[in-house]
Amino acid sequence: MLIHATVTVSGDKAMLGACEARLRRLLSPQFLKNEVTEHHGAGALCYDLKVEGGIPFPVFAQASQEFSGLEFAAEWVNVAAGEKGSATMVNGRVTGQETERVATRAGDEHPVYLEVASNGTLTLALTLFRATREEWRGYALTAARDSVLRALRAPESDSVELFASDGGPEWALAWRGTLSSGIFIRDELRPPIEIAKAVFRDLDVLARNFVADWIWFASERREDIAIERERYVQSGLETADANVRWARLHRLRVDAGEGRPLVHSTLGAEDLWVKDVVLASWAGKA
Questions:
Q1: Tens digits of per-residue pLDDT, 175-231?
Q2: Three-class secondary structure of residue 113 per DSSP
Q3: ω before 191 within 30° of 0 (cis)?
Q4: Cβ distance 110 to 126 under 8 Å?
Q5: How far apart, in whole angstroms, are the C-alpha atoms of residue 217 and residue 146?
Q6: Cβ distance 234 to 39 under 8 Å?
Q7: Fold classified for 2-101
Q8: Residue ranges matching CATH 3.30.70.1270 in the chain
């Protein structure tokens, strides 16, 4: 079973250099070459691992014992086992550990679209589902804001409508236009239209699950996002109110290659127009 893990070592800068050299001796050269990506900065060592059979915790525990002034923080996801967890080691001993179940029902996953600027700023994160023959519902974020969405389009029609919330369980904004023109006129709904409770509940679950998998917020507790922030800093990326989780962003950067746009999409052909409308209207503040 393939496990994706990250191990971050932080503490005294002088000690970090010696610890890095020691880990290179403890971890085989072949393992370092094939299964570990290193992202070290001035204030921490960071190892991204994709391994089969288990994380080499004994190696890191040994290094932790030898460098007692450093903290080793590990996070991992084992999709096949339906589990994710985290642990902290100091002086070779585990000082904190958490595990929890994660959803593994691939059939329940909704398509997603992510577009990220080269500096790490989130342009658009979108997940959605088709509720009826003419209606799509979803959740979207940019670096600065988020909203639940409702998109309407009759089959084969060129005319579309997009509705968005503005901080409450109601449709407060609307855009109307045609796909062929790419022009969408913004309208503030006065009064706003209340979202049916069952519909809002489903959208809230969709949003929470999507965020748990893909997004971290600058407003979260400092200790909860310390590793995410550190990885962004080490990579010279900017942080904003909403950011893509480092493990996801790193994969996008590797897949895209140097200097290429960072885009990830599992949208079906019937969903792509929704993404285009959102980018041209709500995400662009049109």
A1: 999 999 999 999 999 999 999 988 898 999 999 999 999 999 999 988 889 989 999
A2: strand
A3: yes
A4: no
A5: 11
A6: yes
A7: Alpha-Beta Plaits (3.30.70)
A8: 2-101
Going by their DSSP bridges, the two strands 83-90 and 93-101 should be labelled as antiparallel
Average pLDDT over residues 45-74: 86
Q: What is the DSSP letter of 67?
A: S
- The whole-angstrom separation of Cα 31 and Cα 16 is 21
Helices (H), the chain: 13-26, 29-35, 57-66, 197-214, 226-234, 246-256, 272-280
Q: Tell me the C-alpha distance between 41 and 68, whole Å.
A: 20
Give me the mean pLDDT over the 161-183 stretch: 95
For residue 41, the one-letter residue type is: G
Identify the residue whose tokens are 């804001």. Answer: 145
Question: Can you spell out the DSSP letters for 36-48?
Answer: EEE---SSEEEEE
pLDDT at 250 over 70: yes
Q: Per-residue pLDDT for 104 more than 60?
A: no
Distance from the Cα of residue 231 to its chain's centroid: 13
Contact 182, 189 (CB under 8 A): no
Residues 6+ apart with CB under 8 A from 63: 9, 19, 22, 23, 26, 72
Tokens of 103: 């959803």
For residues 152 and 176, the answer to whether their CB atoms sit within 8 Å is no
Neighbouring residues of 158: CB distance < 8 A, sequence distance ≥ 6: 178, 179, 180
- What pLDDT digit, counting tens, does each position of 8-31 carry? 999 998 899 999 999 988 887 756
Backbone angles phi, psi at 178, to 5 degrees: -125, 145
Q: How many residues does this entry show for the chain? A: 286
Cβ-proximal residues to 17 (8 Å cutoff; 6+ apart), any chain = none
